[in-house]
Amino acid sequence: MSSSEQLFARAFQLIPGGVNSPVRAFRSVGGAPFFVKSAHGATLTTADDRTLIDFVCTWGPAIHGHNHPAIKAAIAAALENGTSFGTPNPYEVEMAELIVKFIPSIKKVRMTSSGTEATMSAIRLARGFTKRDKIIKFSGCYHGHSDSLLIKAGSGALTHGHPDSAGIPASFARETVVLPYNDRAALEAAFAANPGQIACVIIEAYCGNVGFIMPDAGYLAFLREITAKHGALLIFDEVMTGFRIARGGVQEREGITPDLTCLGKIIGGGLPVGAFGGRADVMDYLAPLGPVYQAGTLSGNPLAMAAGIASLRMLENRHVYATLDTLGSQLRDAVVVAAKARGIPVQVPQCGSMFSIFFTDTPVRDYDTALKGDAKRFTKFFHACLASGVYLAPSAYEAGFISTAHNGEAIDRACEVMADAIKAL
Ligand code: KE4
């Protein structure tokens, strides 16, 4: 078996940057990525036969740990009947029934093959339903890589967006208003400046793509109120937080009812899946019933549905979330205590099995304060943990994830490693 170094050299010749998704390239923390040949429970085994305790959990899906026997068995059973039919299949119905049961705001749901497709489709649906073109998103929130959503304002609250990515026409950027997260005045000003023009507001209600940031008390309720007042749809992007923060996602924990919700990750059990759903009157605007077109060759794929159903079935018992919160608190406390003893400023926002570590004494509440974190110190911390067998997201601006498989030895060992890494900073 080739080593990670040999594999990366070959990959680099044929795949841009040697990776199929940029964040995997270690560009923001330096060094070369390792290749993984297998994953079980809380650990990854690399092509170099290193065993790592994994806090990326394939960016969220592996809430039960990697290669869970129940998910494996479900995929194997479905595989006996074929891999893809291109027709409706029984698994899709069961998946839809589970999603609707777990997230009451979702009355109808459409499956996709990625979170990007889910948010892109939800935006198009909101524009079709409201017959308005502008959308509001928040700096620091990531909703996948569709053109309307890869937009970030310059400074200021009411700036017309400037594309973060090359290749996005300025005409697209003009339709996306980017606001600071946790800023009520910015929201009020944006709606006042664009009367009757905002189709929707899309938000990661708990941000997981700028590190982990939670909203100020009352902010989400304010957002729900102002969108309803102005006839704009409220879209919760719960691709990351759905079934993770709570069985019903952030909306269950916060008691907010969005008009549409985007899902992904956990509902695929590790296979490619996304979904979007919500109010029936809005969802019925989708083809073949309505004028908003949306489609996908592998949407509702039987293997992916079987894996996702097995994953969701293991979440029916809500006690899972108490376990995940205990694990998250244990990790947070280990880092905070070590940093205090070392006299290092640190913020460790954590809710259940999502967390991040910012090296700053400023409470992190939005993109600007997140950037105040000492990225150099994070990089040193990241590599010290990795050298001792603990793998964190290779970026200071991502969330960490914990699975039920971390319970016991893995979390205890990880806490030791992280505390030692802090002490060595
Ligand atoms: P995908 O298209 O990657 O399945 O989902 C896009 C997406 C949408 N919404 C939220 C809140 C998300 O977090 C994501 C994807 N998350 C990243 C992690 N920061 C995926 C990892 C990657 O890009 O490789």
Number of domains: 2
CATH homologous superfamily of the largest domain? Type I PLP-dependent aspartate aminotransferase-like (Major domain)
Task: Give me the number of helical elements.
Answer: 14
Number of DSSP strand runs: 16
| CATH fold label of the largest domain | Aspartate Aminotransferase, domain 2
- Give a quick account of the main beta sheet: strands, pairing sense, barrel closure: 7 strands, mixed
Strand order of the largest sheet: 4-12-11-10-9-5-8
Helix content: 25-40%
CATH architecture of the largest domain: 3-Layer(aba) Sandwich
Question: Strand content of the residues, in percent?
Answer: 5-15%
Average the pLDDT over all residues and give the rounded result: 95
> What structural category do the secondary elements indicate?
alpha/beta
Overall body shape: globular
Order of helices and strands: HEEEHHEHEEEHEHEHEHEEHHHEEHHEEH
Over the alpha carbons, how many angstroms does the gyration radius reach? 21 Å
Distinct small molecules bound, one entry per kind: ligand KE4
The CATH C-level name of the largest domain is Alpha Beta
N-to-C CA distance: 35 Å
Low-confidence stretches: 153-163
Could you please describe the fold and organization of this structure?
The chain has 425 residues and is of the alpha/beta class. It has 2 domains: 3-63 and 318-424, Alpha-Beta Complex (Aspartate Aminotransferase, domain 1), CATH 3.90.1150.10; 69-314, Aspartate Aminotransferase, domain 2 (3-Layer(aba) Sandwich). Helix content is 36%, strand content 14%. It is built from 14 helices and 16 strands. The chain has a 7-stranded mixed beta sheet with strand order 4-12-11-10-9-5-8, with helices on both faces. A 4-stranded mixed beta sheet has the order 1-2-3-15. Strand 2 and strand 3 (51-54) form a beta hairpin. The longest helix has 24 residues, at 319-342. It binds ligand KE4. Ligand KE4 binds at residues 21, 23, 59, 114-116, 119, 142-144, 204, 208-209, 237, 239-240, 264, 274, 398.
